[in-house]
Amino acid sequence: MKEKSKVIQFDYPLFDAIPPEMEDITALYLRVSTDMQAQDGYGLDTQYEKIRKYCEAYEVPNPVVFVDDGYTGVNDHRPAYQKMLELMHKGRIKFVITYSLDRIGRNQMLILKFLKEECVKAGCDFLAVKDNIDSRSKQTYGILISILSIFAEFDHDAIVEKLTLGRKQRARDGYWKGGGVPPFGYYYSKEENNLVVDPVKGPLVKKIFNLYNSMQYSPRQIADIVGMSSDVMVFGVLKNRTYLGEITFRGEQYLGKHEPLIDEETFKRTQEILRKRSVIRGDSHYLLSSLVYCGVCGAKMRYMKWGKGKSQKLKILCYSKYASTKSYLIKDPDCSNYTYDADEVEENVVSVIMDFAFKYRDELSNRVITEDEVISGLLGRLDTLKQEYNRLIYAYKKIGDDDLLDQAADVDAACKKLEREIAEEREKQTYTKQIEENENMLRTLPDTWGVMTAEEKQNVIRSLVSKVKLKHGEIKVYLNKTQYEKIVLGVVDQE
User: Fold this and answer.
1) What is the pLDDT of residues 188-239, one digit of tens each?
2) CB atoms within 10 A of CB 442
3) What's the CATH number where 209 sits?
4) Residues 98, 71: one domain?
5) Which of 101, 129, 457, 472 is the most exposed place for a label (fewest CB within 10 A)?
């Protein structure tokens, strides 16, 4: 919040005094911050005068002034702007007029969001008087949107690149790069700005390595011993170089400043055992048992050995056509579905799973705003509001103006609303143990798939896939409803 400019008498009602019965409002949006107040001809009085003349000339209906006096345009944390959006979403505002486009915001992404999303969603026309930008002029307005989209994309890419470079530099300096959940056995400490050994989970990491290297326990047994829900989690630990005291970023390793949990000799022995096990496992079969359904008649589909001797192959076919003694599984005796090569179907499903895992891993790698940063941003807004509240109360005690007390009450209400948002965000960001394990499983899946047994691969598939449908040569994979849907939306079909 900045120091306010001189008081201006408006001919039209202000946004905080709109009659409840007023509809079809024309919002006159004004904004000025201290950096703009110093510039001649760009104050609130100039903005208002230009807009007022337009309103009189064209007799716009129900004009209401929305003024953010002393607020920056680099974000949308402005009371009048937020009130305007609220009334737009309620359908009460039909037209927004401002002096120039940069009054809406000081970056292309914010402007584009307002024009392309907020105005379109609310069915609201827009006019920037100085810039002669009018949404009712469809051709020129469309060109403007296209140009803004290009610049907004450039801004976004520049931000991502800048943050990525920052995370790479952190890795080079030996610090945890952030984004996603820290490796099992560590937690992120804000005080130390790095990974710190978890007093409970940390010792379990060494136990996992020792149990596996003894060659007396399977990953599934180790998962049960240390309290993990998935053997894939165990593989993720066994292949993670973070436990050597290294930081990995985009395939590059750097010496970390965190405490290692495993020595080099132990880690090398583990990788050798993993390599040998992968060699002797051979191909997996029946990976999709009980998951495959006929897309023609809806019956389940079964694995069946086809042919004899060296030419024998594993096929997948509909129970309606080959039910044998299980006649109750027949849906349509005349089902026209094909017979499928089991290896081909399995390869397609595994390919979908890998796309899923890679996209999720990339999403974690490119996540530019962490959960903590979201809350930090909200806390920053709350602090600003509280400062404003204290300023208003102080001014009221000095002047005794009841309007100041009313403003303070509004700010206090905004504080309470923001506090609720912060509480909700914190609740949303409270990861359960299962979610943490699922994240780690997906992050490491492309590296661990090749060393899994058939049983282990089946477990992974069942954790991710709810159903596979085969119809006349078409293969559709349906993911389970998980917290990762938004990340992989469009990769596979979902029921």
Assistant:
1) 888 888 899 999 999 999 999 999 998 888 787 888 898 887 777 888 889 8
2) 28
3) 3.90.1750.20
4) yes
5) 472
Q: β-strand 246-249 against 252-255: which pairing, if any?
A: antiparallel
Query: Does 46 fall in a domain?
Result: yes
Distance (Å, whole) CA 217 – CA 208: 10
Q: For residue 476, which of 467, 484, 487, 485 has the smallest C-alpha distance? A: 467
Contact 242, 183 (CB under 8 A): yes
Range of the domain at 74: 15-155
Say if residues 42 and 32 touch (Cβ distance below 8 Å). Answer: yes
Q: In whole angstroms, what is the distance from residue 98 CA to residue 111 CA?
A: 12
Query: How far is the C-alpha of 235 from the C-alpha of 460, rounded, in Å?
Result: 12
Contacts of 346 (CB under 8 A, 6+ apart): 284, 287, 288
Per the CB < 8 A criterion, the answer to whether 451 and 282 are in contact is no
Q: What is the tens place of the pLDDT at every residue in 306-357?
A: 877 777 888 899 988 876 566 778 888 889 988 898 888 888 888 888 877 7
**In the chain, how many domains are there?**
4
Q: Is the pTM higher than 0.85? A: no
3-class DSSP assignment, residue 168: helix
Is 24 part of a structural domain of the chain?
Answer: yes
Helices (H), 59-78: none
